Amino acid sequence: MSVSPVATPAFTAIGTPGRPWGDAERAQWRSRLERRRVYAETVLPRVERLRATWDVLRYGEVAYDGETFPLFALRSRETDPALPIALVTGGVHGYETSGVHGALEFAEHHAGEHAGRIQRIVVPCVSPWAFERVQRWNRDAVDPNRSFRPGSPSAEAAALIDWLGPVRHRVRVHIDLHETTDSDETEFRPALAARDGVEFVPGAIPDGFYLVGDTARPQPGFQQAILEAVAQVAHIAPSDADGTLIGTPATAPGLIEYPVHELGLCVGFSDAPFVTTTEVYPDSPRTTPAECDAAQVAAVRAAIGFALAAR
User: Fold this and answer.
1) Contact 282, 97 (CB under 8 A)
2) Percent of the chain whose predicted confidence (pLDDT) is above 70
3) In whole angstroms, what is the distance from residue 122 CA to residue 217 CA?
4) Any idea which GO molecular function terms this record carries (predicted)?
5) Number of structural domains in the chain
6) Contacts with 24 (C-beta within 8 Å, 6 or more apart), sequence order
7) Which of 81, 94, 265, 299 is 20 to 30 A distant from 289 in Cα terms?
8) Measured CA angle at 285 (ends 129, 125), to 5 deg
9) How many CB atoms are located within 10 Å of the residue 294 CB?
């Protein structure tokens, strides 16, 4: 079953219909946002506590309006430079809470899994400014998950690309943890249409977990292994009557594919053979926050396990 909430006018009222936003409209958008949680209180203490089992690396920072947000990654302690890398990213969209929590829970409870076979790098909160404001975009109304490309307009994406550049050839598997929420339909997609000066066309939100693979690297066995693991802890989203999820034809139950390089998605920054983006639906009456976090952890573990077995 899919839910199609009615869009609210909170951000569609900004600017002139049919005309993309400029600096004034972006400033007006920012003025309507409130800090709803604190990165330094909810994310960074959990990162610090992991120093006993992970290398904690500050790979960069972003600074907005006089405020600096340090960016951290967790790296397992393998020293063999020939080992492949499993990359886990969360919080690319700051409002997608289980992506951040799921990445941290994986690091907290599965630090030793696959030790000596693959190096794990976990980046739990790519976009802290947006995490605090429960937003999809960064401070400049740029979507980081459309900005993983050379010359990125997103400081968050650029920092991660620069840091991982020297080892991107070693990335064997990359799983990026996301959510699809009712607010996608009531807030973020209407805001996107207003920002870009186009008409908003209502859509539907899938009820359940699904994956977004890469059209250039489909790996159906890899995607299916993740879906089977997640199905043990959370329900998989059924397709709509027309065989789509979020308006895109499903290539298998619970799976759609995008051209990730072309779109500038986070999983498109490397040439890893195994890549996927998770999508959890936390607004479902059939789930809980803990179940959403567990689904993310199950997906990460299955992704890494499959990538290693496929060598």
Assistant:
1) yes
2) 96
3) 22
4) carboxypeptidase activity; hydrolase activity, acting on ester bonds; metal ion binding
5) 1
6) none
7) 265
8) 20
9) 21
The CA distances from residue 270 to 142, 219, 221, 250, 252, in Å, are 21, 16, 20, 24, 24
Residues near 292 by beta carbon (within 8 Å), at least 6 away in sequence: 97, 98, 102, 179, 234, 280, 282
Q: What is the tens place of the pLDDT at every residue in 193-220? A: 999 999 999 999 999 999 999 999 999 9
In the beta sheet, which residues pair with residue 174?
A: 87, 275
Confidence at 1, pLDDT banded by 50, 70, 90: very low
Per-residue CA distances from 121 to 66, 172, 243 (Å) = 29, 11, 35
Q: What is the pLDDT of residues 283-296, one digit of tens each?
A: 999 999 999 999 99
Q: Which of 87, 72, 80, 164 is nearest to 121 (CA)?
A: 87
User: Residue 250 is part of a domain; what is its CATH number?
Assistant: 3.40.630.10
3-state secondary structure of 90: strand
- Three-state secondary-structure class, residue 272: coil
Tell the residue number behind the tokens 């043990």, with chain if given.
Answer: 232
User: In this structure, what token pair is assigned to residue 74?
Assistant: 């967790």
DSSP state of 166: G
Tokens coding 21 = 């936003």
